[in-house]
Specification:
heterodimer; A: 4 helices; elongated; B: 162 residues; mainly alpha; Alpha-Beta Plaits; 2 domains; 3-stranded antiparallel sheet; 12% strand
Chain lengths: 120, 162
């Protein structure tokens, strides 16, 4: 096992730093955005570009270090992509229910969870 | 064949995952295939409806469009958070024509994966999907964007008649 060549070291560290920066921006957004529905969007930065950049950096780095194709990390990305919608949808729907229960001004033009009146 | 492997896509994906996690060798291939067959057979009674890909051709186009959109929306949302400007968020109702579970599930994944849009709910009776947009300017723009960019392509992939 030898060290990384210079170009690879630069590429990998740039990718990892970019991913970390995007995750940090997502966390800042989660802290600073005023409304609940707006805060739903901030973690998306971490789960999409943040994780993609770090995963790419890790795949390139370890593939070169071990001199064979390392693809485990791609599975992490796949599972993150498939599971985040579940939690985001649960949170969004919980907020909709709360707003309806507290009689807040309606978020939606029509409530998607209510049964619409029959047309006929 | 269908009784032997009720969910062929799942079985193939499981074999691939097994080979990625272990090093490729004939023994692991046999073992992984066995695990995949048992798993897809066990899922058969739980999920009788198999998801099938009807057309493969739109898939690369969809992936390319998705990659571009994810990148672009990431940069836009990040810039907006850093600038400290509070965006005008809002809710859009989008009419979806599809009732197919695979289309809806993938649409939900796509919408959640792109920062700046999130899926709030879907009414199965009216077929209306509720979308929350981080920086909302033109409502109609988002409606046509979801319908023409993603729903059309997904329906082409998973449904016979479009």
């Amino acid at each position: 096992m030898t060290g990384l060549p210079l170009w690879a070291a630069i590429l990998v560290s740039a990718l990892v730093l970019a991913g970390a920066a995007m995750s940090l921006i997502g966390a800042i957004g989660l802290l600073r955005l005023p409304k609940f529905y707006q805060r739903l969007h901030a973690p998306g930065l971490t789960t999409s570009s943040g994780s993609i950049c770090i995963i790419l950096g890790s795949m390139i780095g370890f593939s070169l270090l071990n001199e064979r194709l390392v693809l485990h990390e791609a599975l992490i990305g796949l599972f993150i992509m498939c599971t985040t919608p579940v939690t985001l949808m649960l949170l969004g729907r919980a907020a909709l229910y709360r707003d309806r229960a507290e009689n807040r001004p309606v978020v939606a033009p029509t409530d998607p969870l209510a049964v619409p009146p029959r047309q006929d | 064949m269908r009784r032997l492997v009720p969910h062929p896509l799942l079985a193939v994906a499981l074999v691939l995952m097994w080979l990625i996690l272990t090093r490729f060798s004939l023994g692991q291939l046999v073992l992984g295939t066995g695990v995949a067959l048992v798993a897809s057979w066990a899922l058969g009674p739980l999920e009788p409806k198999t998801i099938r890909i009807r057309r493969w051709r739109p898939i690369p186009g969809l992936l390319a469009v998705l990659a571009g959109d994810v990148l672009w929306s990431n940069l836009r949302v990040a810039r907006m958070i850093l600038s400290g400007r509070i965006p005008s968020s809002g809710v859009v109702e989008v009419d979806l024509d599809s009732r197919d579970r695979a289309v809806l599930a993938l649409l939900a994944i796509i919408i959640s994966a792109t920062p700046g849009t999130s899926w709030l709910g879907w009414n199965p009776r009216s077929g209306k999907m509720l979308l929350h947009v981080f920086d909302l300017r033109e409502e109609d723009e988002w409606k046509t964007l979801i319908q023409t960019r993603y729903e059309c392509r997904l329906r082409e992939i998973f449904e016979w008649e479009t």
